[in-house]
Amino acid sequence: MQKKVLSEQSLYYGDVSMPKGFEIDQTILSKDIFHYKAYNRFPFSKTLDKLSTYISEHIKVKYNINLIKKETYGEVYHQQEITLPLYTIDPVDLKNSPDFTLLYGVDVKDCYVRIYYDDNRRKGRSWDIELKNNMFVMFPSTNMYIISNNNKNSFNFIQTITYEYI
Amino acid sequence: MAHFAKISENNEVLQVLVVDDKDLLNSNQQEDESVGQTYLETHNNWPAHLWIQTSYNTINNTHINGKTPLRGNYAGIGYTWDEDNQIFWPIKSYASWVKHIASASWKSPLGDAPALTEEQTSQNEANTHRWFYVWNETAYQADNTTGWELVNHLP
After folding, report:
1. pTM for the complete prediction?
2. What is the distance between the alpha carbons of residues B91 and B73, in angstroms, rounded to a whole number?
3. Which residues of A touch B (CB under 8 A)?
């Protein structure tokens, strides 16, 4: 008896362990997110480049997936805000949609991500993960997700990067 | 042109970049690895000590142009940097293989493949057969006195 895996939905998550002195600067990235919110355009950011390079290089070495950055944007979530279901693909333009969505906790507290998936006929299953500072979670862009900020006192800053793989 | 491997703190090679020779020159106009490391730190946001120079012409601890080899092998993504032995190790082909420092390569625990017989060599030369030995890890794990298997790749 043999088994053939035709498709899989893999999620990658963990901390971004940059070398000492080269850590991702939360303050700069938070400012970049504010800039994006104000001008609807993400500024050139060495900090973001460090993050994106770290992810693509480590995913390549560990899982042999070649990621190419597609889009970048940041979001600020209010106290006790729960988003509507989110998608980073365009369902009517899959050709130009990304393969993976990465969420990175820039400055977050009590922040949870719920990722929905189908398991054959068992539809609408979900997996929850707490997103912490300097932590990322990456999942297929075809998976719907929601973000909830459960804390009452502060905003949550989350960086999103979408990737294609080749 | 000089090549530098970007390594993680766990000594995995993440990337290999090319640096112009002029970016390696110190104040005496001599090529200096530390100058290249500083250059890469500045332009690539990665600490200088995690950039290790590697030689495009070095393989299995031999320089293809007969010069002095540098650090065992030309680094590739996924290779491992061995600071103690100053060698970039390629990814291990089989679980049982062991490091051979002198040749900067992985060797089977039974040594090199046996030599072909004169008859097999002559058949290879006549193109009637294509004899060579391949490593069978499953066979080795079952019986650690076997591993090399003779195969013929011509029907």
Report:
1. 0.89
2. 12
3. 17, 19-22, 46, 49-50, 53, 57-58, 60-61
